[in-house]
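User: Structure tokens for this complex, please. No commentary.
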Amino acid sequence: MPRRRIHTACVPGSFTAEEAETAARMFKALGDPVRLRLFSAVASHEGGEACVCDISDVGVSQPTVSHHLKKLKEAGLLTSERRGTWVYYRVEPSALAAMGQLLSTATKAA
Amino acid sequence: MPRRRIHTACVPGSFTAEEAETAARMFKALGDPVRLRLFSAVASHEGGEACVCDISDVGVSQPTVSHHLKKLKEAGLLTSERRGTWVYYRVEPSALAAMGQLLSTATKAA
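Assistant:
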């Protein structure tokens, strides 16, 4: 049985190539259990922000925490602000919009 | 100024180590622009399912599409069913629950 022809616009889903690059970079950054838990820790911390001093007991050293927080920031998932001795990280809302767009489409489909 | 002591339960966010492993595997699978667009294509395709024949023009060869769809399945993001000549893929709802849990926490924080 021949397959019905589909519209080209539907084929790559709702992502442009550029949007896919940006979102993929974010997903890749979360593709590590430690980084995922750190992101979650920042997101769920009181006031929506946390510094290394707040999340130093995830099971890795403080320099490792700092390293991963920087990676999350580079991927566009977190923003940071230095206040006194500490750098405070918080979730970047536009990152959630990009990832949420995908999950929203997928939730409707599932 | 000394930092206020925080509750240990808050520290790693809302993920157990096992949940973090599972979700990180899913995020990692989506950490590639082509796979991300394929996942989105399956999710947004009519009826919530698609086969390789439906999504062969994302800009990569059909064997590459097949390869990536298998990777998405291995990560728990898609399920598959063979019907006649074609294997049909659809989004695995429990995958969305795991990823949605994180984004939901993060959305409240942002």
